[in-house]
C-alpha cells in the first residue's frame, strides 16, 4: 500500500513569488512588434486561463504597470513602466556622457571627481576620475554613501518623490534628522552642497538633471587645504558650470531657484 501524497498548501511567500513571476511574464510579452495585448492573446501565449489574466490585468492597471487602450479591450505598458524605462535609459546615458565632463573638470581644478547614482536607499558611487595631485583623495566605485553625506543631501533635495525623501530622512536619529532636513532646504536654494567631515575631507556636490528629474550627483573631493568649502569658490563654480552643461546635454532643466 502506497502512501497518498498530500499537496502542501501554498504559502503566502510562494504566492507572492508566483505573482511577481507572472507579472514579469506579462510585461515580457511587450516588444516593438507587440505594443498592445488582449486577454485572449496573453492567455494563449502564457498558457493561463482568461480569468487569471483578467485579474492580473486589473491589478497591474491599478498599480500603473499597465493602462487600457482607449475604446478597446487592449492594454499597453503604463506610466510606471514608462517612467522606469526612462530612468534606466537616463542612467545609461549619464554613465556614457559624464566621463568627458569629469576629466575636463579634474584637469581644471586638480581635484578628484566622483559621480553617484541613486540606489535603493541612497547614492552609490558609480564613476571616479582621480586627480593628478601629490595628495590623492578618492572614493571606491560601488561605495554606498550615507544619507547625511553631501551627495545624498543633494539627491534628497531634488528627488521627484519628496514623500520618499521625507521617509528616508525620518529614519535618521535626532538631532541628525533635523540638521539634515535643514541642510536639504538650503541646498534647494543654493543648488549644491558642501560638507567637511571629521577627517578634514571636503566634499562639494551638485546635481545633474535629465528630462525626468535628477539623475546623478557629481562631487569634488579633497582635503580642506586643497578644496574650499565655500560655494562661491573657483572650484565650486567650475563644478556647478560642468553640471549645468551636462544637464543641458541630458535634456534636463536646472531649477530656476538655484540660478
TrEMBL record:
<dbReference type="GO" id="GO:0003677">
    <property type="term" value="F:DNA binding"/>
</dbReference>
<dbReference type="InterPro" id="IPR005471">
    <property type="entry name" value="Tscrpt_reg_IclR_N"/>
</dbReference>
<dbReference type="InterPro" id="IPR029016">
    <property type="entry name" value="GAF-like_dom_sf"/>
</dbReference>
<dbReference type="GO" id="GO:0045892">
    <property type="term" value="P:negative regulation of DNA-templated transcription"/>
</dbReference>
<dbReference type="InterPro" id="IPR050707">
    <property type="entry name" value="HTH_MetabolicPath_Reg"/>
</dbReference>
<feature type="domain" description="IclR-ED">
    <location>
        <begin position="80"/>
        <end position="252"/>
    </location>
</feature>
<keyword id="KW-0238">DNA-binding</keyword>
<keyword id="KW-0804">Transcription</keyword>
<dbReference type="InterPro" id="IPR036390">
    <property type="entry name" value="WH_DNA-bd_sf"/>
</dbReference>
<keyword id="KW-0805">Transcription regulation</keyword>
<dbReference type="Pfam" id="PF01614">
    <property type="entry name" value="IclR_C"/>
</dbReference>
<dbReference type="InterPro" id="IPR014757">
    <property type="entry name" value="Tscrpt_reg_IclR_C"/>
</dbReference>
<dbReference type="InterPro" id="IPR036388">
    <property type="entry name" value="WH-like_DNA-bd_sf"/>
</dbReference>
<dbReference type="GO" id="GO:0003700">
    <property type="term" value="F:DNA-binding transcription factor activity"/>
</dbReference>
<protein>
    <recommendedName>
        <fullName>Transcriptional regulator, IclR family</fullName>
    </recommendedName>
</protein>
<feature type="domain" description="HTH iclR-type">
    <location>
        <begin position="17"/>
        <end position="91"/>
    </location>
</feature>
<dbReference type="Pfam" id="PF09339">
    <property type="entry name" value="HTH_IclR"/>
</dbReference>
